[in-house]
Amino acid sequence: MATEQVENGSKCRKEVLGEAYVGATLSRADDFNGDFRDKVMEYCSDGTWGRGVLTKQQRSPLNLGMLAALNRPQEFKLHFRGAVTNGVKLEELKEILNQIAVYCGIPAGIEAFRLAREVSADLGIDVLNLDANP
Q1: Is the pTM of this model over 0.85?
Q2: Which of 20, 50, 111, 127 has the fewest Cβ atoms within 10 Å of its own Cβ atom?
Q3: pLDDT tens by residue, 33-92
Q4: Do 115 and 80 touch, CB atoms closer than 8 A?
Q5: Mind giving me the DSSP string for 19-71?
Q6: Where are the domains of the chain?
Q7: 3-state secondary structure of 116
């Protein structure tokens, strides 16, 4: 049975990562990983993203920097998509990626730009024309 924190975390996670992604993740939960999925909802989504002190637009860049530094490309792509969903502007994301390159190293920056371009293409965002995007 889900706790209130898991339910709140699920709601918050859907706001950031989308209903389809969270639904697919939850549908893959089983006896082996179900407790872990609940911890993610409880600790990450409700206990961190749901605290309200920082906005989702403020939290997204933090996650991108940490995930780039940790070399977690799948999670980086997921949170880049979440940053777009959260309203972080493409011009701001470009600056975030440049700062990642400086503080995490040029190889991390190259990978971050490559992953961002991949996600942007999936979302139909024209990275070659910043003015054409929301």
Answers
A1: yes
A2: 20
A3: 889 988 888 888 888 888 889 999 999 999 999 999 999 999 999 999 999 999 999 999
A4: yes
A5: HHHHHHHHHT--TTTHHHHHHIIIIIIITTGGG-SS-HHHHHHHHHHHHHHTT
A6: 4-51, 56-132
A7: helix
